[in-house]
Design brief:
The complex is a heterodimer of chains A (376) and B (475).
Chain A (H helix, E strand, L loop, with lengths): L17 H17 L23 E3 L7 H13 L15 E5 L3 E5 L10 E3 L10 E5 L10 E7 L6 H16 L26 H5 L1 H4 L1 H22 L5 H21 L4 H25 L6 H8 L10 H17 L2 H6 L10 H10 L18
Chain B lengths: L2 H16 L22 E3 L6 H4 L9 E4 L5 E8 L8 H6 L11 E5 L4 E4 L4 E5 L2 E4 L3 E4 L7 E5 L17 E10 L3 H21 L11 H11 L19 H14 L4 H11 L4 H32 L5 H14 L3 H13 L9 H13 L16 H13 L5 E3 L13 E3 L11 E5 L2 E8 L2 E6 L3 H19 L1
Parallel strand pairs in B: 11-13
Antiparallel strand pairs in B: 1-2, 2-3, 3-10, 4-7, 5-6, 6-10, 8-9, 9-10, 12-15, 13-14, 14-15
Classes of the chains: A alpha+beta (376), B alpha+beta (475).
C-alpha cells in the first residue's frame, strides 16, 4: 500500500499564512541553531552563551535557610507553580532559578533528580545582569542541558511581589508555551534573522500598527468593549445580556479594523496568545496569593482607563482580557482549545472567544455601555 | 624509637599492602622501616587478621598492633590521588563531623573523649585534635578513627598548579582500648590521651617521603607573598601571628559549634571553592553549620511567612509545604509548618480538596513525622469532615463502611463487635464511619474493637499499616 504523505489540515487564522510561515520556519530553525544570544524581556527560551559555571554545587535546604524576603518569594512561587495556577505549568520537570543579587542563586522545583523543594547554591550570585536569562541547565550546575529560566532581583530595590509575577509570566513562556507553540515560526521572534522581514515584528505591531489615530481609536474601543464584557461576566450573577452585547461590539470593532486597516492578522493572533495568557496569569496569581493585582488589567477594570498603547502592547491587553472572558464563559475548557498539546493546532484567543460567544444563549438585545458616546 | 620511623614504616607497609594495582605511582620508593614505639606488637597483614575481623574490621590495615593489655592500634591508608573531591575521607572517617586542619603539634583537643564498644568489649576511642604547624592536617572525630593525618599543605597556600602531582592520602590512627570498670576508666582514658598526644608531639616524617618538611612549608609561604628564593631556607621559628592553617582551624571549630561569624563563614567559603580535600571538608562544615542554623530558625521563619500571608492563601501554602516536607522526610520543617497553621487557627475545614489531597500525599510518605499527630490543624471532626474525607480517601483506595447502613445496623455508640466466623483475617482493618466517628476496626481476639481516628495522621498510619499487611498477604 502506497503511503500518502501526511498533510495536516490547517484551519482558522493561523492557516492563512501557513505557506509563508512554513518557508520561513526552515531558515528559522537554522538560525535558531546558530544563535548564540537572545536576551531581554519576553523572548523565547533560547540558550545564551554563558561562562563556565560547572563548579556550582547545589545544596538542598529548607525554606528557613533563606533570608526572609527570599523565603517569601520562593514560598509564593512554589505555591503557584504547584499546578494551581495553570494545570501542567509546574516545576516538576522545569526548575526555576531565582538569582538574588548579592546573596545566592536559588533553584526551586525538581532541581536534582528525585528531590523536590527549594535549593540554594553555595556560591554568591550577582552574575546574571539581565532581569531574565535563559541558560542551559549545565551552565548553572544542573544535571542536564534543558534550558532554565533565571529571574534576577535585587531585594533592596525591587518589589517582591512584582518579581513573583514576572517569574510567573516569563516562566510560562519558557516552560509551557515553548513546548506548545509549534505553529509559531521561530524567525518571527529571533532578532537578526534574515527571514524576519516576512513578518511584522512585535515592535512593529506595537508601534507602527498603533501609531495612527484611527487605529489607536479602534484598539482603545476594542479594549473597552472587552473590559466591559469581562466586568459583566464577573458579576455574581453574570449579566449575560451586557456580556453578549459587549462581546459582539468587540468582535465587530475588530472585524472593521481588520477590513479597513490592513493588519498582520497572524502576527496579532500569535502575540495576543503569547503575551495575553501570561498577563492574565499574573492577575490570576495575584488572586491566588490574595494580593492586589498591580498589572495593567486592574487599571482598566477599576478605572476604565486604557493605557498609552505606545507604552503597553495592545495585544497583551486584549489577549489577557480575552483570557479572562474565556475563563468566565468556559471555565477551564478554553485552555485546551488554545493549547491542545500534541493533538493539533490551537485556536487563537480571538477564535476561542468567537467559539465561546456562540454558546451563549440568545436573549433580549441590550446596549454595551463600553463605548457609549464614542465615535465608531 | 620515635614516630618518624613509625610513619616511614607505615608508608612502606602501605606500598606492600596495596600491591601493584593500587600502588600510587608518585610515592617515593626509598623508605625506612623500624619498629613502632613502646609496647605495641605489630604486623603488616595482607588480609585483616582474624582477631581484627572479630572486631569488625575486614579491610587490612597497613599496620595492626596489639599490646599486652588487649588494646589495638590500627594504622590505615587511603589514597586520594584519584579522588577529585576527597569524599573518601568520609569513607574512612565514617561519619566524622570535623576535618580539622593542623600540624605536628597538638594545640587543642576537645574535652569530650567518647568511646564505643566492640563485640569483645574493646573500646573504640575518639578524641578531637586541633593542630598547627607545617601543614599536615590532623582530623579526628567520627565514630571510628582516633586520629587522621592528611597531607594537604598546598591547599592553605593558594594551591599551586603542581599540587595535582602531589600525593593525597590519609593516614589514620585508630586506638581501641579495653577499658577497665568505671572507677578506673577515667584514668585509663586519660592515659590513652596522653599517649596519643605524646605520639603526635614526637611525630616526624622522613624527608624522603611525600609529606612536606617545615623548610618547604616556609618556602611555599614565601613564594606566595612574592619573595623569590632559589632554595628552601632553613626552618624558621614558628610565626607568632596565627598562620593560615590556624585561622582555618578556628574556622572549622566555629563551623562545628554552629557559631559562624561573618569573617569565619567567608574563610570557609573561600576554602570550599578550592577543589581539594580540605575544600570538600570546608563545604561540608559550612553546609552542616547552615543546616543547624536553619533548623533553629525554621519555626520563626514559618511564623513570619504565615503572618504575612493573606488568610485565604495560607491553607494552600501550608498544604504545599507540609506535603513537600513530609515527602522529603523533613520533620523540622513539617512541624514548623503545622505549628504556623495551628497558630493561624487552621483546621481541616480550612483546606480545599486540592490542599487536603496534597497533605494526604505527603502523609502517605512519612506519617510519623508530625508531633502530636499534627495537632488541631489536622484533627478530624467526623461530623464536619467525615463525608469529604471519605470521598478524598477513596482515591487512595480507602473505603469507609457506614455501619449504620448495614443490613444489621450496629448501634453507633458500640465500640466492640463480635467478628463473624466468615470474616477473613485480611479484611481488617475495615474503615468505618460510625455515627459521629471515623475510625477502623482492629481485630482483638475474637472481637473487633473500634479505634477512632483523631487526626489525619491516624488515618494515614492505618492506611500504611493496611497496605503493608495486604502486600504481605499478597506475597
Amino acid at each position: 500500500m502506497q503511503r500518502q504523505p501526511i498533510v495536516s489540515m490547517r484551519s482558522g487564522r493561523f492557516g492563512r499564512l501557513s505557506l509563508r510561515a512554513a518557508a520561513a520556519a526552515i531558515t528559522g530553525v537554522l538560525s535558531f541553531l546558530s544563535c548564540t544570544t537572545v536576551d531581554g524581556p519576553d523572548q523565547p527560551p533560547t540558550p545564551i552563551a554563558t561562562p563556565d559555571r560547572s563548579a556550582i554545587q547545589w545544596d538542598a535546604v529548607g525554606i528557613a535557610s533563606l533570608p526572609i524576603h527570599t523565603a517569601a518569594v520562593i514560598a509564593d512561587l512554589t505555591l503557584l507553580l504547584d499546578g494551581r495556577l495553570w494545570p501542567g505549568y509546574t516545576l516538576a520537570s522545569h526548575p526555576l532559578l531565582v538569582d538574588v543579587a548579592g546573596e545566592a542563586l536559588y533553584c526551586i522545583g525538581r532541581c536534582v533528580a528525585g528531590l523536590d523543594g527549594p535549593l540554594r547554591t553555595d556560591e554568591i550570585a550577582g552574575r546574571f545582569t539581565g532581569r531574565y536569562s535563559f541558560v542551559p541547565g549545565t551552565t548553572v550546575g544542573l544535571a542536564d542541558e534543558q534550558t532554565v529560566l533565571i529571574v534576577s532581583f535585587d531585594p533592596n530595590r525591587e518589589v517582591l511581589k512584582d518579581i513573583v509575577f514576572t517569574a510567573i509570566h516569563e516562566g510560562f513562556h519558557a516552560y509551557y508555551q515553548a513546548d506548545r507553540e509549534n505553529d509559531v515560526p521561530l524567525e518571527m521572534r529571533l532578532p537578526g534573522n534574515a527571514q524576519r522581514s516576512a513578518y511584522a515584528s512585535r515592535a512593529e505591531l506595537q508601534n507602527t500598527y498603533t501609531a495612527a489615530a484611527e487605529r489607536n481609536g479602534f484598539l482603545s474601543r476594542e479594549i473597552r468593549a472587552l473590559a466591559w464584557a469581562a466586568k459583566a461576566g464577573a458579576k455574581e450573577r453574570a449579566d449575560d445580556g451586557e456580556l453578549r452585547a459587549c462581546l459582539d461590539q468587540f468582535l465587530e470593532l475588530r472585524r472593521i479594523r481588520h477590513s479597513e486597516l490592513p493588519t498582520p492578522v497572524m502576527e496579532e493572533d500569535l502575540w495576543e496568545r503569547t503575551e495575553g495568557v501570561p498577563l492574565y496569569l499574573e492577575r490570576k496569581a495575584a488572586t491566588l496569593l490574595g494580593r492586589s493585582d498591580t498589572n495593567v488589567l486592574e487599571q482598566i477594570f477599576d478605572y476604565g482607563v486604557v493605557p498609552d498603547l505606545s507604552m503597553v502592547p495592545y495585544f497583551s491587553i486584549t489577549g489577557a482580557l480575552e483570557a479572562v472572558i474565556l475563563d468566565q464563559l468556559t471555565r477551564d475548557e478554553w485552555r485546551t482549545w488554545v493549547f491542545p498539546g500534541r493533538s493539533g493546532e490551537g485556536l487563537s484567543l480571538y477564535d476561542a472567544v468567537v467559539r465561546a460567544r456562540s454558546s451563549l444563549r440568545p436573549g433580549l438585545p441590550v446596549p454595551c455601555p463600553a463605548n457609549a458616546g464614542a465615535e465608531s | 624509637m620515635n614516630m618518624r620511623h613509625l610513619v616511614s614504616l607505615t608508608i612502606a607497609a602501605s606500598l606492600l599492602v596495596l600491591g601493584a594495582a593500587a600502588e600510587p605511582t608518585g610515592l617515593p620508593s626509598r623508605v625506612h622501616i623500624s619498629d613502632p614505639p613502646s609496647r605495641w606488637k605489630c604486623e603488616r597483614p595482607e588480609e585483616a587478621p582474624e582477631w581484627l575481623v572479630a572486631e569488625g574490621v575486614t579491610r587490612p590495615p597497613i599496620l595492626a598492633c596489639r599490646d599486652d593489655a588487649g588494646a589495638i592500634l590500627l594504622l590505615s591508608y587511603t589514597d586520594l590521588s584519584t579522588s577529585r573531591t576527597g569524599y573518601s575521607v568520609d569513607t574512612l572517617v565514617s561519619g566524622a563531623e570535623d576535618q580539622l586542619p593542623g600540624s605536628w603539634r597538638v594545640q587543642k583537643k576537645s574535652s569530650a573523649f567518647t568511646t564505643r564498644q566492640t563485640p569483645s568489649r574493646l573500646a573504640v576511642t575518639r578524641v578531637r585534635l586541633v593542630g598547627s604547624g607545617n601543614g599536615l592536617t590532623f582530623a579526628a572525630g567520627g565514630s571510628t578513627p582516633t586520629l587522621v593525618l592528611m597531607e594537604q599543605v598546598p591547599l592553605a597556600y593558594s594551591e599551586p598548579p603542581s599540587t595535582t602531582a602531589l600525593h593525597q592520602y590519609i593516614l589514620a590512627f585508630e586506638v581501641r582500648t579495653s577499658l577497665p570498670p568505671e572507677p578506673r576508666r577515667k584514668a585509663a582514658i586519660d592515659e590513652r590521651e596522653r599517649e596519643l598526644e605524646r605520639w603526635v608531639d614526637t611525630l616526624v616524617v622522613d624527608h624522603s617521603i611525600a609529606l612536606l618538611q617545615p623548610s618547604e612549608f616556609e618556602f611555599l609561604s614565601a613564594t606566595r607573598v612574592g619573595a623569590s628564593t632559589a632554595s628552601p631556607r632553613p626552618a624558621a621559628p614558628a610565626p607568632v601571628a596565627p598562620s593560615p592553617a590556624e585561622a582555618t582551624a578556628k574556622a572549622f571549630i566555629a563551623g562545628d559549634s554552629g557559631e559562624l561569624a561573618e569573617p569565619t563563614a567567608r574563610e570557609l567559603e573561600e576554602l570550599a571553592r578550592t577543589e581539594s580535600t580540605l575544600g570538600s571538608a570546608a563545604a561540608e562544615t559550612l553546609r552542616r553549620a547552615r543546616l543547624r542554623a536553619a533548623s533553629a530558625r525554621t519555626p520563626e521563619v514559618w511564623r513570619t511567612i504565615a503572618t504575612n500571608t493573606p488568610k485565604a492563601t495560607l491553607p494552600g501554602l501550608v498544604a504545599v509545604f507540609l506535603s513537600a516536607a513530609l515527602s522529603n522526610n523533613d520533620a523540622v520543617t513539617a512541624n514548623a509548618v503545622i505549628a504556623s497553621a495551628t497558630e493561624s487557627s487552621l483546621t481541616l475545614a480550612s483546606f480545599s480538596d486540592t490542599d487536603l489531597q496534597s497533605i494526604l500525599v505527603g502523609l502517605e510518605s512519612f506519617p510519623g513525622l508530625l508531633v502530636d499527630g499534627g495537632g488541631p490543624a489536622l484533627a478530624i471532626d467526623a461530623a464536619r469532615d467525615g463525608e469529604r474525607l471519605a470521598r478524598l480517601l477513596a482515591r487512595s483506595g480507602v473505603t469507609f463502611i457506614d455501619i449504620a447502613t448495614l443490613a444489621r445496623p450496629i448501634p453507633p455508640g458500640e465500640t466492640r463487635w463480635k467478628l463473624l466466623r466468615s470474616t477473613p483475617a485480611n479484611s481488617l482493618p475495615v474503615f468505618v464511619r460510625s455515627g459521629q466517628n471515623l475510625g477502623r476496626l482492629v481485630r482483638d481476639g475474637a472481637t473487633a474493637r473500634f479505634e477512632r481516628f483523631a487526626t489525619l495522621v491516624d488515618v494515614m498510619h492505618a492506611v500504611r499499616a493496611a497496605g503493608t499487611r495486604n502486600s504481605a498477604m499478597a506475597r
